[in-house]
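Quick one, tokens below:
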């Protein structure tokens, strides 16, 4: 049996097309963004940092949080990206921009 942690949230599965644009927009909408790439906090969001299309595609774990709550991320592989269901407006905006495809309802 699986138990949800207190304060946990449901996840919207998405198929990303433009990792960098998704991440930069998540950082933009967060009031206190925290970017974690392969268990390291990242603060350089420029093209010279790790938050590039190639850098994201080659990492195993990524999560962008706002005040400790995950907005978007993946674990194990970039194609298994998720968006917190509380950020459905963000997901819809990214899909409208062509950056991702929503794969189904939150679960």
């Amino acid at each position: 049996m699986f138990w949800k942690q207190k304060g946990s949230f449901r996840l919207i599965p998405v198929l990303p097309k433009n990792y960098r644009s998704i991440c930069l927009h998540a950082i933009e909408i967060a009031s206190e963004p925290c970017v974690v790439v392969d268990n390291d906090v990242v603060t350089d969001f420029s093209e010279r940092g790790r938050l590039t299309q190639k850098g994201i595609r080659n990492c195993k774990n990524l999560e962008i949080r706002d005040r400790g709550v995950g907005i978007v991320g993946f674990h194990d592989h970039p194609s298994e990206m998720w968006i917190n269901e509380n950020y459905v407006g963000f997901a819809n905006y990214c899909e409208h921009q062509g950056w991702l495809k929503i794969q189904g309802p939150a679960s």
